[in-house]
């Protein structure tokens, strides 16, 4: 018997958490038809000997809602073994929307997620009003990997209440309207509903985005309608750095919503606290543990390394003085020429010397190095300020030297969450935590954590050995499939959908982040490729081979209602 594709003699880690087996996988159409010893030949065959063969990874926290309109391969995550992306997180999305609401949603996305508004307005076709029509538009563009989308609370509020949705609470009738539209969105193909509680997410005028301060009754009413249709609830909580009373209120809100909605909850989780606030790990264990004891399916997602800003000559995250701001206003080619000019460079250095703000930034910057892969695991004391001090220089002077040595290509990392690796490991070890939170598609010129899956495998599995490979794969495949309610993905088995990775575990890693000017309107963004991916298959189509895209696009829309699988 012949097959469309056979992957031969790989170390199959099937996603269930069980030990690997050496064997073959046969794929016909978009389905795995045999696992084990496949005797039939494949029209195409991939030699996986010595490599890990896994289900495709799932990224449960992206903001690719705009980028997918002009980049159907959803880079950077499709370079890192991801075959399913969840969009619409944090309450921000682009539907439902009336024609007079396009600019509001674009400006909100720019303010919250740092995606240029004009890029959004010009780059998207805006040929939809309902959330289902938005998904139809995405589908027409034939995505490279699978997409699941959530309808956002902010868009719902603005659609129903207009400008009043920012500052006022809805009437009882308006709450019912939002609940009905959310339910209809699930029937049209959304996989869930997202809401924001984080006060830092603001509109351009400084007000928090619609729904952030919504009363408990509103969230419960909407989620009840969503849960009745089988949709999930996603929340970004107002928990980092808050006191116990606020934390407990947030968790009580989640619990009440879940009790009435009867659905699954996914929330963003980090490890960092501020000042004398209680440990978030202790608070998570207490509150999430209580919900689990009550039988509520609650899950969190966290990035498996330090997350934060990137600093380099090609983006604008660097020192700020009068002359540094002049440098910031230049295009890259002029910046490089300017720092090569000794007189201009000395002016930059002199203004930064003894400048408290410049020193403060230098203390946060850790060089990513000049090796094949970026180094995210430096001790936080191994920063630009201390390195420069050893050489009797200021941080800005050493920063400029590194830029000159690399022709402006090198980058520094300025982490600001999940700062302590031991705490991150403890959080990753919780059964209810899914690795992710890379924010793909957002903060496009300052943050690039999209390669989290490659770091997770390279650092936690291979380099430190602290997380066994079968468990790591389970956390990136069958566990997120459970969160999303997908019964036909996340495990390698006969009859399952053919989302598969072939990975060289000796090589898998992130490559250095780079700046590209490939967004609509010539806008810049960070991207990050990977190494060690022999192949990625999405619904039976090989979309990546030897770390490069093949041109194949195998993705479909995964969701509720008419798109349920």
Automatic annotation (TrEMBL):
InterPro entries the record matches: Amidohydro_3, Metal-dep_hydrolase_composite, Metal_Hydrolase, Metallo-dep_Hydrolases_sf
GO-annotated molecular function: hydrolase activity, acting on carbon-nitrogen (but not peptide) bonds, in cyclic amides
Residue ranges annotated for the Amidohydrolase domain, each copy included: 44-201, 425-543
Entry keyword set: Hydrolase
Statement: the UniProt record of this protein carries the keyword Transit peptide: no
One GO cellular component term: cytosol
Source species, domain of life: Bacteria
Protein name: Amidohydrolase
Protein species of origin: OM182 bacterium
């Amino acid at each position: 018997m012949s097959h469309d594709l056979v992957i031969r003699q790989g170390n199959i880690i099937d996603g269930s958490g069980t030990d690997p087996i050496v064997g073959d996988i046969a794929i016909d159409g978009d389905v795995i038809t045999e696992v084990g010893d496949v005797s039939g030949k494949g029209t195409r065959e991939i030699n996986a000997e010595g490599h890990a063969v896994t289900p495709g990874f799932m990224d449960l926290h992206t903001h690719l809602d705009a980028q997918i309109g002009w980049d159907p391969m959803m880079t950077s995550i499709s370079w890192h073994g991801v075959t399913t992306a969840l969009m619409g997180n944090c309450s921000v999305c682009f539907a439902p929307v009336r024609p007079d609401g396009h600019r509001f949603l674009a400006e909100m996305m720019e303010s919250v997620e740092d995606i240029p508004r004009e890029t959004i307005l010009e780059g998207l076709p805006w040929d939809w009003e309902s959330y289902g029509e938005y998904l139809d538009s995405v589908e027409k563009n034939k995505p490279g990997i699978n997409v699941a989308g959530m309808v956002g609370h902010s868009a719902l509020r603005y659609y129903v209440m207009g400008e009043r949705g920012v500052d006022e609470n809805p009437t009882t009738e308006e709450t019912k309207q939002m609940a009905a539209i959310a339910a209809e969105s699930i029937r049209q193909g959304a996989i869930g509903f997202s809401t924001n509680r984080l006060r830092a997410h603001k509109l351009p005028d400084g007000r928090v985005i619609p729904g952030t301060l919504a009363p408990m009754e509103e969230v419960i009413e909407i989620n009840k309608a969503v849960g009745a249709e089988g949709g999930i609830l996603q929340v970004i909580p107002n928990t980092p750095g808050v006191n116990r009373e606020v934390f407990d209120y947030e968790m009580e809100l989640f619990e009440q919503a879940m009790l009435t909605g009867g659905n699954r909850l996914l929330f963003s989780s980090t490890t960092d606290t501020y000042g004398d606030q209680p440990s978030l790990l202790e608070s998570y264990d207490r509150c999430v543990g209580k919900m689990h004891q009550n039988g509520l399916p609650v899950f969190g997602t966290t990035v498996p390394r330090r997350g934060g800003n990137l600093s380099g000559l090609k983006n604008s995250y660097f020192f700020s003085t009068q002359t540094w701001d002049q440098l910031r206003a230049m295009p890259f080619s002029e910046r490089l020429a300017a720092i090569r000019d000794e007189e201009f460079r000395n002016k930059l250095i002199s203004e930064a010397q003894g400048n408290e703000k410049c020193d403060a930034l230098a203390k946060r910057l850790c060089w990513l190095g000049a090796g094949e892969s970026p180094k995210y695991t430096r001790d936080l004391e191994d920063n630009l300020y201390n390195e420069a001090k050893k050489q009797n220089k200021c941080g800005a002077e050493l920063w400029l030297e590194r830029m000159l040595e690399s022709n402006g290509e090198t980058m520094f990392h300025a982490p600001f969450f999940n700062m302590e690796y031991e705490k991150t490991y403890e959080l990753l070890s919780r059964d209810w935590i899914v690795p992710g939170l890379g924010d793909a598609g957002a903060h496009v010129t300052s943050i690039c954590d999209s390669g989290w899956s490659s770091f997770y495998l390279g650092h936690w599995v291979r380099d430190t050995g602290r997380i066994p490979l079968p468990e790591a794969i389970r956390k990136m495949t069958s566990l997120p499939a459970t969160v999303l309610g997908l019964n036909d993905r996340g495990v390698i088995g006969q009859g399952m959908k053919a989302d598969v990775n072939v990975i060289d575990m000796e090589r898998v890693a992130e490559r250095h982040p780079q700046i590209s000017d490939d967004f609509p309107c010539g806008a810049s963004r960070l991207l990050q490729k990977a190494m060690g991916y022999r192949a990625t298959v999405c619904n039976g189509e090989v979309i990546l081979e030897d770390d490069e895209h093949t041109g194949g696009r195998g993705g479909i829309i995964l969701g509720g209602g008419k798109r349920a699988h």
